[in-house]
Amino acid sequence: MTRGDAQTYKIALVGNPNSGKSTIFNQLTGLRQKTGNFPGVTVDIKSGKIRFAGGIEAILTDLPGTYSLYPTSSDEKIVAALLTHPAHANFPDGIVYIADTNHLEKHLLLLTQIMDLGIPILLALNMSDTAAELGIKVNIIRLSERLGVPVVFVSGRTGENIDRLQAELEKMMLGTQAIHKTAAFYTPTEAEKQLVEAVQLNLGTENPYRALLIAHHYQWLPFLQHSERETLAAIVETKHFQSLRAQVDETLDRFDRFTPFVQESVQEAPTFPNTTTDRLDALLTHRIGGPLIFFAVMLLMFQAIFDWSVYPMDWIETGFSWLNDGLKAALPAGWFSDLLTDGILAGLSGILIFIPQIAILFLLITILEEVGYMSRVVFMFDKTMRRAGMNGRSVISLIGGGACAVPAIMSSRTIGNWQERLITIMVTPFISCSARIPVYLVLIGLAVPAVKIGGLINAQTLVFASMYALGVIAAFASGWAMKKWLRTREPSFLAIELPEYRMPDWKNVALTVWEKVAAFVWGAGKIILFVSIALWGLSRFGPGNAVETAENTAREKAQTTQLSTSETEDLIAHHRLEASYAGQMGKFIEPAIRPLGYDWKIGIALLTSFAAREVFTGTLAVLYNMGSAEPDISSRTDNQAKVTMRAKMREETFSDNGKPVYTLATALSLLVFYALALQCMSTIAVVKRETGSWKWALFQFTFMSALAYVVAWLVYLLFS
Amino acid sequence: MLRRYKTVPDLKAHESAAAISFVDPALACKLTAMGVRPGAVIEMIRKAPFGKAYYIKVDGIRLALREEEAFSILLEI
Ligand SMILES: Nc1nc2c(ncn2[C@@H]2O[C@H](COP(=O)(O)OP(=O)(O)OP(=O)(O)O)[C@@H](O)[C@H]2O)c(=O)[nH]1
Questions:
Q1: Residues 6+ apart with CB under 8 A from A91
Q2: pTM here?
Q3: Using a 6 Å CB cutoff, which residues line ligand 1?
Q4: Which value does ipTM take for this structure?
C-alpha cells in the first residue's frame, strides 16, 4: 500500500448525479454498509467495507453526485472540500470514478479534474447493459491509453464485470496499476500559473491544481484558517483573478481536450431516437395532464399508507398486548413488572407501531425517485415553490416530510441557494409526518362523529384531510412570509437534469427503505423509549410520600362512598397521578394551556410530546391508566379497547367547574396544535446541524410553537 | 435594429438552434459543467405547466431550465 499503511485503505466513489454510484456501491459492499454518524439521519455519507480475496479490507465511501469541482450546492461542496483537503480524516487514498457510458463526454469533466489532483483513480464505465441495447461500443483500451487511467466496463444493474472492478481496485491499493500518468490534464493559463505559485508559496500546497481550486473557493472552504483566508483574498485581489470566468474557460478547455478521445474510442448509435422517456414525458409533464397525474399519485400514495398498513399494524398491536398480558401474569406485581410493561413495553410498541406506515411511505417515495419521476415534479412546480421562497427541488423535501422530517430536511442539500434551502428546512416540519397520524386518529375518533356530510364524505375523513391541508398551507404561507423577510441576493438555479425513466432497481429500493426505517427506529426510537420510561417514573413517583398519602385519601373516599373494586382502582390511580411529579408538572402549566381548552393531564401529554410527538397516545394511555391497552387505542379493529379509552376520556371533567374536558372544541384545538407545533427533538437536532447554528433551530421551534398556540386558541374560541 | 441572436424562450416546441454563448457567468459555469457548451444544439421540448420554466434537450440530455436561465443562453439565428 502506498498510503495509510497504519489504517485501512480508503476509497471514494465519485461521479455525476445519476451515474449509478449508489448502485455500484451496493454491488461492492452488499450489506456491509452504514450511514452517517448521527442518529435518525439517512442521506449522510455512506460507507461500507469491501473484502478482497487475501483477506484485505478497504473502506468505500459514496460521495454526493457532482458535475464538477466548481460546486453550486452544499451537497456538491462536500466533494470539493474533501478532495482539496489531504489532511482530512476521510481523504481517499484512491478514487473509483463512475461514468454513464451513454453520455460519456459529459461525464469526463470531473474525472479529468480529479486526475489533476494526483489521487490514484480508476474509471468505471457504468450501464454497460443499456449501452449494449443502444448499440454503443467502447474501445476500452484506446480510452484507457488516451486518458491515462485504467478503465473497466461495468453494469451496476446486472453486476457485469464487478469482479473485474474489484481486481482493478486491488491493483490500485497495492500500487500496481498498469498506468500512471503524471502530466496534468489541464494546462493553466499564465495568470493562473502565477496565482498557483503564490498560493503554493503561502500555504505550502503541493499540488498545483489543488492550489488553484483553493484560490477559487477560499471564501467557503471549511478547513482554511482565518489568516489563510485573508492571505488568499489578498492574492486573488492583487492578481485580479476572476474566478467565474476562469472556471468557464477551464471547463471548456478540458472539454476540448477530451472530446477527441471520446470520439476515437466510442462508436455511438447515430442519434438518440424518440424514446419511451419522450413519450412518457409528453404525458407526465403535460401542461394539464402533468399536474393532474401528480396529484393523483400523491392521493394514491397516502391512500396506500392507510390501506396497506392496517394488517401489519394489527399484528404488532396484537403481539404487544399478548406479550404485555403474559408478562403481567408471569411476573410478581411490583414496580419492576410495571416498569417492564407500562414503561419499556409501552415505549417499544410506540416505536414499532410506526414501522409499517413509515416503511410504505419511504418505499413509494424511493420508487418515485428511482424511476426518475421526482425531477419532473421539480420541473413542474419550480414556479409554485418559488412563490413561497423555495426551489423546485424543495418539492422532494416536502413530500418526504410526509414520512419523516429528518431525512426530508437532509435532502434539501441539493438546493444551492442558501435562502431557498433555509426556507425549505424551516417549513418542512409543517407537513404532517407519519408520527402525527396516530395522534390524529385518536383525537378524531374521540370527538368527531362518524357521520356522512351531505351523504358523501365522512366527517372524520374530512377532518383528517384538513389536518394535512393545514400543514401544507402553513408551509407555503410561512415560506412566503420568510421570503419577504429574508431577501438575499445570491444566484439561484433550477438547471436540473431529467434522467431517462428506468425500472427501479429493487435491490437499491430495498436497501434504501431498510436504511431509512432503521435510522428512524434507532434515532427517534431511542428518544421515544427514553421518554416513555421517564414518563412512567414521573407518573409513578412523587415528592416525599405525596403519592402514598393520595392513595390513602382515595381509599377512604372510596370506602365512604362504597365504590366497586374497579371504581376504587380508578380513583386511586387518578389520585396517585395527581400527586406524582408528572401531575405536578401538568398542574404547573395548566394556567398556560387552559385558554386552549386543555387540563393538566393533556398538559403532561403536551410536555412529553415536545421530545417526540408520537409519545402522545402512549402518554394518554398511561395517564388514563390503560398502559396495557395502549397500542389498541389507535387500532381500527380493536373496538373494545377504543371504547374503554374513549369512555374514560369522555368522563374527564375540569376540577374547578366540572365541565367535560374532551369537547369537540378541545379535540379540534389539540389537533391543530399537533399539526403545527414542532414537537420532535430529532428535527431540532437535524436543523441545528444543517443550518450550522442553534439560531435557526430555536427560531423554528419558537415560531412553530407560537403559531400552534395562537391557531389552537382561535380554533377553541371558534368551536366552544 | 436587427438582433444577431435569439434566446431559448424564442424557440417553438421541437425547434432547435446552436448555442453561441451565455450572458450570466455563474450560470455559464453551471451549464458548461452539465455539458451545455457553446456550439451545442438546443432543442425546445415544452414549457412547464405553470410557465416560467422550460424542458430542453441538448445532445440527448434532457434539462429543465428556469425562464431567467433560458434567457441567458444566446442562440444562433
Ligand atoms: N440500466 C442500468 N441502470 C443503472 C445502472 N446503474 C445504475 N442504474 C440506475 O441509474 C439510476 C441512478 O442510479 P444511482 O445509483 O441512484 O445513481 P447515483 O449516482 O448514486 O445518483 P445520485 O444519488 O443522484 O448521485 C437508478 O435508477 C439506477 O437503478 C446500470 O448499470 N444499468
A1: A10, A82, A83, A85
A2: 0.83
A3: A 15, 17-23, 65, 126-127, 129-130, 155-157, 370, 502, 505, 508
A4: 0.94
